[in-house]
Structures are given as C-alpha cells and as structure tokens.
Write a structure and sequence with these properties.
Length: 100
C-alpha cells in the first residue's frame, strides 16, 4: 500500500510541476503578445498620422488653382478663344437609353 501511496504522491508532484510550468509559459506568452499589441498600436497611430498628411497633400495638389498652374506652366495649355471653340453634337443610339 505504501508503494501505491508513493506513486500517487509522485504523480501529484509531476502534475503540480507541469501546472506551474504551464502557468509560467502562459504568463510569458501573454506578456509577449501584449508587447506586440503595443508595438502594433504605435505603428497604427504612425500610419494614421501619415495617412492624414497624405490626404492633406493630395488635397493641396489637386486644387483647381494648382491644376491650372500645372496645365499652363508644364503643359503649356491655354484657354481657347471663343472663335476656336467648336460644339459637336452627338447622336445617341436608341439602345443607349439617352435621348438626343
């Protein structure tokens, strides 16, 4: 009977030791994942800031004044004189569903 008792105590100790190790491993995993979460949140915040800056830059570059300036300076475009304007009337096909 004492051999059975020693065996049971040994099993309890092994289970207790395994439980302690799993608790330590679980805590370590939780801390590691929390650090990763914080790093990703900082990266998200930086990307949000960069996105806001890019939206501001896009709105600055796409203003009508900026587009006109690029058209005049880089593309050498000018507003046509009234006598240079030609109106073209299109005839829509009946299948297009648009009336002329």
């Amino acid at each position: 009977m004492s051999g059975l008792r020693v065996m049971a105590i040994a099993c309890v100790w092994v289970i207790l030791f395994a439980s302690a190790l799993s608790a330590i491993w679980s805590k370590h995993q939780a801390r590691t994942l929390f650090v990763e979460l914080q790093r990703l949140q900082v990266e998200r915040d930086q990307l949000d800031i960069e996105w806001g800056q890019l939206k501001l830059e896009q709105s600055a570059w796409s203003t009508h004044g900026r587009v006109e300036q690029v058209a005049r300076a880089d593309l050498r475009m000018v507003i046509p004189q009234p006598q240079e304007v030609r109106l073209v009337q299109t005839v829509a096909s009946p299948s297009a569903g648009v009336r002329p």
